[in-house]
Write a structure and sequence with these properties.
There is one protein chain. The chain is built from 17 helices and 10 strands. Helices cover 53% and strands 16% of the residues. Strand 5 and strand 6 form a beta hairpin. Helix 10 packs across helix 12. The chain is globular and about 80 Å long. It has an 8-stranded antiparallel beta barrel with strand order 1-6-5-4-3-7-8-9. The chain has 520 residues and is of the alpha+beta class.
């Protein structure tokens, strides 16, 4: 689940104001008696989880006392996953797996224990549904002997079933009463400053507190070729690893139509492509093994992603013609066969992500994002060095397409169109990687290539789907399923023909001189 909350620092004399003025019509405010919570936080010896904005705790007295909170792109919004189990049994295995990319094989052990006296003020709708909760927390940090090592007080506002406007109004009430809204600093991070101050420092704000996984930060003025390579590597690694927990927990990506599986697979492909494009700038003994391991991971993710695409496409194709409805039972049977394939593929993903091979790869990727191994020639100005590196994937693409798209025979085999799609993807990734240096011409080319790739992707999806529907129907031995599969195939092949008809104009837009002159 997603947790959305805001934190406030308050003085000892602070009193939570009456919340009823901002409660929706018909809602009520309920104030609960204080409860005592004791939570123990787990981390690696060097606080890898805390430095990455992750928390893993056991909080006594709750039905599911084990909780992992994972950061998102939005401050104050975190993924929360809870599990049952006593503390003596250790951290549940699936939660240990959930933090793999942050802990990367290091042991997890207790690092902080806090005792909280919490008083909840709840805004409830007329039907009793919880809209928002204001928690007034008085926190005592305990040392290893159970003695008080420090104290602080904070107020949290958590959005539940209410809308964002309610959160804003509660914010206004609290700040008017003297609460200070500052940086979003989790409790365990504040607690760690009392128990291991020499190790924590200003966790999250100075070099000692930086996460191991370095996020992309944009290019400097007058970048070197190495700066561009480094930014491209960081962007792909960050995309790949930050979606790992969502793939494991089957959680959708907030605010995105793309699945976590798709995002992780794209991260693999982009990094492999970038390492290939920038091969003259990186140490081959470093990049080649990394590319091979990424190829392995992309293959595992790809099998599951392909079935994910097919299941979505089945329903979309079946519903494409309301005037020619297909038998719902037969479609359901085809979907059930795909669902079984998907479970098998996802089990293989889970197995791969649990393997020592993958843990070693995450370590290598974290190091790659921190400091890619560059050759001396990478110190050259990016504007001078990079365009010539993009020429190779661009020329391979143009050679596969042919003059004025003539090389793509409208009646040619699907496999050739698929090969062109792969070349288009590599060229687009390469152009994207240097667009920040080359400027608007490269950005426009990247946009045009995105349209080309989208068309060719639709071609490939339709062609694969057509073959799959026949395969599934044949395996079922069901005449009605075979009939429905035949009609699905007709629709897929019509989609293939549409793409082939639209492709020349899309290619002409990409291959304009004003967009590609810098590659000549």
């Amino acid at each position: 689940m997603l947790e959305e909350e805001r934190k406030y620092e308050v003085p000892d004399e602070f009193e939570v104001p009456d919340l009823s003025p901002v409660a929706p019509t018909g809602a009520r405010v309920e104030s609960r008696s204080p409860v005592r919570l004791v939570a123990t936080y787990f981390d690696t010896a060097d606080l890898r989880l805390a430095r990455s904005g992750v928390s893993l705790r056991h909080r006594r007295g709750e039905p599911e006392p084990w909780t992992v909170k994972l950061p998102t792109d939005t401050v104050g919004v975190r993924h929360e996953v809870s599990r049952p189990g006593p503390r003596r049994a250790g951290v549940p295995a699936d939660l240990v797996e959930l933090v793999t990319v942050f802990a990367r094989g290091a042991d997890l052990a207790p690092v902080a224990t806090i005792r909280t006296s919490r008083r909840r003020h709840q805004v409830r709708a007329a039907d009793g549904a919880l809209l928002a909760e204001v928690a007034d927390d008085r926190v005592t940090v305990l040392d290893e002997a159970g003695r008080a090592a420090g104290r602080f007080r904070e107020v949290e506002v958590e959005r539940r079933g209410g809308d964002a406007d309610l959160l804003e109004q509660l914010d206004g009430l609290l700040t008017a009463a003297g609460a200070e809204s500052g940086s979003f600093l989790p409790k365990h991070v504040r607690a760690l400053r009392f128990v291991v101050p020499e190790q924590v420092g200003a966790l999250g704000t100075d070099p000692e507190g930086e996460p191991d996984l370095v996020a992309p930060a944009g290019l400097p003025d007058d970048p070197t070729a190495g700066d561009v390579v480094t930014e491209a590597v960081r962007r792909a690694v960050f995309r790949l690893l930050t979606h790992d927990p969502l793939v494991r927990s089957r959680v959708p990506v907030p605010g995105s139509h793309r699945s976590a599986l798709q995002q992780m697979r794209v991260g693999c492909r982009r990094l492999r492509s970038d390492l290939r494009t920038f091969a003259p700038l990186v140490v081959p003994e470093w990049s080649r093994p990394l590319r091979e391991e990424l190829r392995w991971l992309a293959g595992v993710l790809g099998a599951a992603r392909d079935v994910e695409v097919l299941r979505a496409r089945l329903r979309r194709t079946a519903d494409a013609d309301p005037l020619g409805p297909l038998d719902a039972g037969a479609v359901d049977r085809l979907d059930a066969a795909l669902a079984a394939r998907q479970e098998t593929a996802l089990a293989e993903v889970d197995e791969a992500l649990r393997s020592p091979r993958y843990v070693a790869l995450t370590d290598a990727l974290v190091l790659a994002a921190r400091a890619p191994r560059l050759r001396p020639r990478a110190a050259a100005p990016a504007a001078e060095k990079l365009p010539r590196l993009v020429r190779r994937p661009w020329r391979k693409l143009t050679a596969s397409v042919g003059v004025d798209a003539a090389g793509l025979d409208p009646l040619g085999p699907d496999d050739h169109w698929h090969e062109v799609r792969k070349e288009a993807k590599r060229a687009r990734y390469a152009v994207n990687a240097v667009a920040g240096v080359v400027g608007k011409d490269a950005r426009r080319l990247a946009e045009a290539l995105a349209d080309v790739q989208r068309l060719l992707g639709e071609h490939q999806d339709a062609a694969v789907a057509a073959d799959t529907w026949v395969e599934l129907a044949t395996a079922s031995g069901d005449p009605l399923s075979a009939l429905v599969a035949g009609r699905l195939v007709e629709r897929e092949r019509a989609a293939v023909r549409r793409v082939r008809a639209d492709f020349p104009s899309a290619w002409a837009r990409a291959d304009r001189g004003r967009r590609t002159g810098w590659l000549r």
